[in-house]
UniProtKB/TrEMBL annotation:
This is HTH deoR-type domain-containing protein. It comes from Fusobacterium ulcerans 12-1B. One of its GO terms (molecular function) is DNA-binding transcription factor activity. Residues 3-58 form the HTH deoR-type domain. Pfam families: DeoRC, HTH_DeoR. PROSITE patterns: HTH_DEOR_1, HTH_DEOR_2.
Length: 254
């Protein structure tokens, strides 16, 4: 297949599915991943798509979030290692709030693997799918407006349901963590969900990889003082460690 034909086929797939994965396209067209990266770079220059690590997607005027299918492929090993560390803090009998982040889905998978006898409160379809055949986990899924890019329920109905639910521990992620402004998100309605999960849990675990630090998004989830533990994959700077120590936030490295 000629390069120009391959570009047209990639555009067609994008228009049908909304996003593409580099490794999948490489196998489909029987070319190297580097060739696919060059193809996507060319399409990005024509404003056809938005490139991210691992793939690309069509931008939406109403939802700027990177599609879940792509985010599930990014830093996957680190996310599983964060989840493996998180399980050390989960005991039988706990009630857990688990958000719709891909790292939180990894936490759910580890909970299922170790057959923890817990109750899980979530707004994530992916988390529900993890536990759908579990003998040990009781699932409470809040409903509301369905957000396709994250496979999650958001909006006032979901927030109102969370209002009457409480947990021992919340495992949440975010788009960015800033030393001055705290924990932020690129989605106002996803931030509302995470804020309520944090408020209605005795302890909060922020589960974030190294790429989230020293960035800032427009919607505040909470200040760093509302977080009890940060579980991350790489040692933070001395400035970060000092700031978190003053706020009595425990840092847990994988």
């Amino acid at each position: 297949m000629l390069a120009i034909q391959r570009l047209k086929e990639i555009e067609k797939i994008l228009n049908e599915k909304g996003s593409v994965i580099i490794s999948t396209l490489s196998k489909q067209f029987n070319v190297s991943e580097e060739t696919i990266r060059r193809d996507l770079d060319k399409l990005e220059k024509t404003k056809v798509l938005k490139r991210v690590r691992g793939g690309a997607y069509l931008q939406s005027e109403t939802d700027k979030q990177v599609p879940l299918e792509i985010r599930e492929k990014i830093y996957l090993e680190e996310k599983h290692e964060i989840a493996n560390k998180a399980i050390e803090f989960i005991q039988d009998g706990d009630t857990l709030m688990i958000d719709s982040s891909t790292t939180a889905v990894c936490v759910a998978q580890i909970v299922d693997k170790y057959e923890k006898k817990v109750t899980v409160i979530t707004n994530s379809i992916r988390v529900v799918e993890v536990f759908q055949d579990s003998k040990w986990v009781k699932i409470v899924c809040v409903g509301g407006s369905f957000r396709k890019r994250t496979k999650s329920f958001i909006g006032s109905q979901a927030v109102n349901q969370l209002e009457t639910l409480y947990a021992n521990k919340a495992f949440v992620s975010c788009t960015a963590v800033n030393r001055k402004f705290g924990v932020t998100d690129d989605s106002e309605r996803e931030a509302e969900i995470r804020r309520k999960m944090i408020a209605n849990s005795e302890e909060t675990f922020l589960i974030v990889d190294r790429t989230k630090f020293d960035n800032l998004e427009s919607h505040l989830i909470c200040g760093l003082d509302k977080i009890d533990y940060i579980i991350t994959d790489q040692k933070l700077s001395n400035e970060w460690e000092e700031s978190l120590k003053k706020l009595k936030v425990d840092i847990v490295y994988i």
